[in-house]
Backbone:
C-alpha cells in the first residue's frame, strides 16, 4: 500500500503526513475481501465473510446485499425474500426490490410483482420498473400513463417496449403513433428497436427496403418510411443534398412523413448553427411530430439571429409543459422586452426568477434586483445535527467514505454517495443544512453541496458554494491574474471538490484535467515531474490552462469556459459572423453538456463573487459580449 501524502481519519485518530498505513485486520478488511469475493463470484467466501462482521458495524449488511445481487442473476427468489425481510428499509433493499420487480414482470409473475411493487416508493423506481407497474395497471383495467414520452427518439428498455405492445393491442395507441415512434427510432439510427417494434405490432415496415432504400417503392407505407430514413440519414453528412432529395420525393410522401423529414433536417441544420436555413425548414415541419429537442432548437435558431418576434411565436407554440420551463419563460420575457413590451415581460421574468439557477439570476437582474447570498437566519440546531449523525443511512455513507479514502477505493465513494442521497429524501430544511454541515466537516464536499442545494426556504450559501483549498486556488489565480470566483465556479462544476474525481474519459482531479492537457501544460510551465491528482499541482496546471484559453479567446470568460469543456477550436467555431450577447452564445452552443456547463459555471462564479465580497458584477455583465468570428 502506498505511503500517505495527506492526513486521514482512522478509528478516531489522525495519521501524520507521510506516515505508513498500519496493517488492519478489522471489519473494513473483511468488507474489502467480501467485495473481492463478490466480483470473483465466490459466493461461499462472500457468505462466510459477511458472518464475521460485528452487529454494530454500519456496513454489516453489505456482504448479504452483494449476495442478493448474485441471487437476482440466478432468479433465486428465496434469497431475495430473506434479504428483504431482514433489511426492511434503506437504499440496499430498495435497489434490490427495484431490480426484482423487473424480473418478476419479465416472468409475468404478477401476483408477486403486485406485492413487491406497492412496497417500492415512486422515487425508487426506474424507467423500466415504472413501465412494468403500468403494465400491471393495464392488466387490472386501468389506463396507462402518458405514452407520448416515448416519442422523443430514444430506445426504451424491455419493460417499456412490452408496455407499448400491450397498449397498442388494447387500443390505447394508434398505428399512426407507432409509425411516429418507428420513424424517430430510424432517424436516431436505432434500426434494431424499430424493427422489433414493427415485428411486435405487425407494423408493415419494409426491412428489405431499409437495407436498400434505392429500391424502395413509394406506393407502400413501408417503402415511404425507407425513403424517409434514407433522406434523414443522408442529412447527417450532406444537408443540402438531403434537402434537395426530400424536395424531389416530397410529392410521393404523405404530408406527415414529409413534415417529419423537414423537421429532422431543420434540427440537423440548427445544431450546425445554420440558423436561417433551420428556420425555413422548421416552417415546413409537422409541429405534431416535433420532439422537445426540435422545439428548443427552433427557438434557439430564432434567438441566434435575434429574430425576437419569431422567437416569441415559437415559444408560444411549444407544448405548455416545455414553454413553462425557466429557460423559455426567460427567453419569452427577453423577446417581449426587445419588442418594446416591458409590461408583458415583467411577470414572466418574475416567474422565471424563482430559485437560484442561471435563468433565475438573469431574470432577477432584469427585474432590477441584485444577487443575495445571505445565510440562513436560524441554522440547524444541535438536535438536528445529532439526529442526522445518528441516521443509519448517514452512518453507512460516512463509513463507506472512510473506506474509500483509507484504501483509495473510488467505488466505495460511489456507494457512499448513493447512501447519502437516499438519506436526504423527504428532509426538512434544517435537517438538510445539518447534513450539509456534517458532510463539510468530513470533507464530503459534493454531498454537502447536494444537501444544501435541496433546501426550500432556509438557505446557507456558504455550504452551497463551498471554498475548500482556498489558499492554493487563490495563490494561482492571483499569479495568473484571473478571477478566483470564476476558477471556483469552474471547479465546483467540474469535480464538486472531489480530489480523487476521475471522469469516464480519464479527466482527473479538482480541475478535471485530461492526461494530454496536463502533460502539455506541465511542459509549458517547466514541470518535469508531477502527479495530476495532487491538489496544488492540479490547480496550478488547471488555472494555467484556463488563463491560456482566456488569452487565446479574446479575453472572453464565456468562450474560455466553453473551451475548457469542449476545446478552443469548438469555442471559436461557435462564434457568429457578428458580435453576440454572451447569453445568446451560451444558449446556442450545440453540445448540451457544454451549454449546461457554461451556464452553471458562470452562475456559480456570480455566487462566489458575492461570497468573496468582490465588486458587484451582474451575471448578465459577466456573460458580456462574444466578439464576431
Residues:
Amino acid at each position: 500500500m502506498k505511503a500517505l501524502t495527506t492526513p486521514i481519519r482512522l478509528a478516531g485518530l489522525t495519521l501524520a503526513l507521510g506516515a505508513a498505513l498500519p496493517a488492519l485486520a478489522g471489519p473494513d478488511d473483511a468488507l474489502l475481501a467480501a467485495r473481492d469475493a463478490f466480483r470473483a463470484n465466490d459466493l461461499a467466501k462472500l457468505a462466510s465473510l459477511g458472518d464475521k462482521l460485528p452487529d454494530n458495524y454500519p456496513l454489516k449488511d453489505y456482504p448479504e446485499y452483494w449476495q442478493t445481487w448474485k441471487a437476482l442473476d440466478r432468479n433465486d427468489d428465496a434469497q431475495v425474500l430473506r434479504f428483504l425481510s431482514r433489511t426492511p428499509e434503506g437504499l440496499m433493499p430498495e435497489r434490490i426490490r427495484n431490480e426484482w420487480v423487473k424480473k418478476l414482470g419479465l416472468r409475468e409473475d404478477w401476483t408477486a410483482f403486485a406485492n413487491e411493487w406497492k412496497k417500492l416508493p415512486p422515487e425508487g423506481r426506474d424507467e423500466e420498473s415504472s413501465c412494468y407497474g403500468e403494465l400491471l395497471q393495464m392488466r387490472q383495467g386501468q389506463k396507462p400513463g402518458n405514452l407520448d414520452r416515448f416519442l422523443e427518439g430514444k430506445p426504451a428498455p424491455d419493460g417499456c417496449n412490452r408496455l407499448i405492445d400491450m397498449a397498442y393491442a388494447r387500443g390505447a395507441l394508434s398505428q399512426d403513433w407507432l409509425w411516429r415512434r418507428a420513424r424517430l427510432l430510424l432517424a436516431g439510427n436505432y434500426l434494431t428497436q424499430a424493427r422489433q417494434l414493427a415485428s411486435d405490432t405487425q407494423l408493415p415496415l419494409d426491412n428489405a427496403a431499409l437495407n436498400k432504400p434505392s429500391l424502395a417503392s413509394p406506393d407502400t407505407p413501408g417503402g415511404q418510411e425507407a425513403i424517409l430514413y434514407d433522406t434523414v440519414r443522408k442529412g447527417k453528412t450532406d444537408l443540402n443534398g438531403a434537402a434537395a432529395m426530400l424536395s424531389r420525393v416530397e410529392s410521393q410522401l404523405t404530408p406527415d412523413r414529409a413534415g417529419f423529414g423537414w423537421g429532422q433536417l431543420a434540427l440537423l441544420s440548427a445544431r450546425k448553427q445554420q440558423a436561417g436555413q433551420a428556420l425555413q425548414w422548421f416552417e415546413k415541419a409537422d409541429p405534431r411530430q416535433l420532439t422537445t429537442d426540435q422545439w428548443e432548437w427552433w427557438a434557439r435558431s430564432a434567438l441566434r439571429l435575434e429574430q425576437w418576434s419569431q422567437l416569441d411565436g415559437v415559444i408560444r407554440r411549444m407544448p405548455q409543459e416545455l414553454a413553462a420551463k425557466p429557460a423559455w419563460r426567460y427567453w419569452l420575457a427577453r423577446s417581449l422586452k426587445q419588442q418594446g413590451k416591458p409590461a408583458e415581460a415583467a411577470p414572466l421574468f418574475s416567474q422565471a426568477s424563482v430559485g437560484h439557477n442561471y435563468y433565475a439570476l438573469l431574470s432577477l437582474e432584469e427585474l432590477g434586483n441584485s444577487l443575495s447570498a445571505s445565510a440562513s437566519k436560524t441554522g440547524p440546531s444541535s438536535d438536528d445535527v445529532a439526529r442526522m449523525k445518528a441516521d443509519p443511512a448517514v452512518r453507512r455513507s460516512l463509513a463507506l467514505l472512510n473506506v474509500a479514502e483509507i484504501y483509495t477505493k473510488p467505488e466505495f465513494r460511489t456507494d457512499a454517495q448513493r447512501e447519502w442521497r437516499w438519506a436526504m429524501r423527504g428532509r426538512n430544511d434544517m435537517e438538510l443544512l445539518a447534513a450539509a454541515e456534517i458532510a463539510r466537516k468530513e470533507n464530503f464536499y459534493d454531498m454537502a453541496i447536494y444537501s444544501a442545494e435541496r433546501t426550500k426556504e432556509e438557505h446557507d450559501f456558504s455550504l452551497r458554494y463551498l471554498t475548500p483549498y482556498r489558499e492554493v486556488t487563490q495563490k494561482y489565480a492571483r499569479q495568473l491574474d484571473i478571477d478566483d470566483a470564476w476558477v471556483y465556479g469552474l471547479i465546483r462544476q467540474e469535480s464538486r471538490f472531489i480530489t480523487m474525481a476521475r471522469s469516464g474519459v480519464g479527466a482527473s482531479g479538482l480541475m478535471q484535467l485530461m492526461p494530454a492537457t496536463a502533460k502539455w501544460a506541465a511542459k509549458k510551465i517547466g514541470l518535469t515531474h508531477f502527479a495530476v491528482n495532487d491538489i496544488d499541482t492540479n490547480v496550478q496546471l488547471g488555472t494555467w490552462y484556463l488563463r491560456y484559453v482566456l488569452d487565446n479567446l479574446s479575453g472572453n470568460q464565456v468562450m474560455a469556459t466553453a473551451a475548457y469543456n469542449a476545446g478552443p477550436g469548438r469555442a471559436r467555431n461557435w462564434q457568429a459572423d457578428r458580435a453576440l450577447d454572451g447569453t445568446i452564445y451560451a444558449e446556442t452552443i450545440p453540445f448540451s453538456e457544454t451549454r449546461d456547463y457554461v451556464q452553471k459555471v458562470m452562475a456559480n462564479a456570480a455566487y462566489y463573487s458575492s461570497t468573496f465580497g468582490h465588486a458587484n458584477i451582474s451575471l448578465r455583465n459577466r456573460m458580456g459580449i462574444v466578439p464576431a468570428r
Observations:
- DSSP finds 36 helices and four strands in the chain.
- The longest strand covers residues 8-10.
- The mean pLDDT is 93.
- Residues 101 and 116 are 7 Å apart (CA to CA).
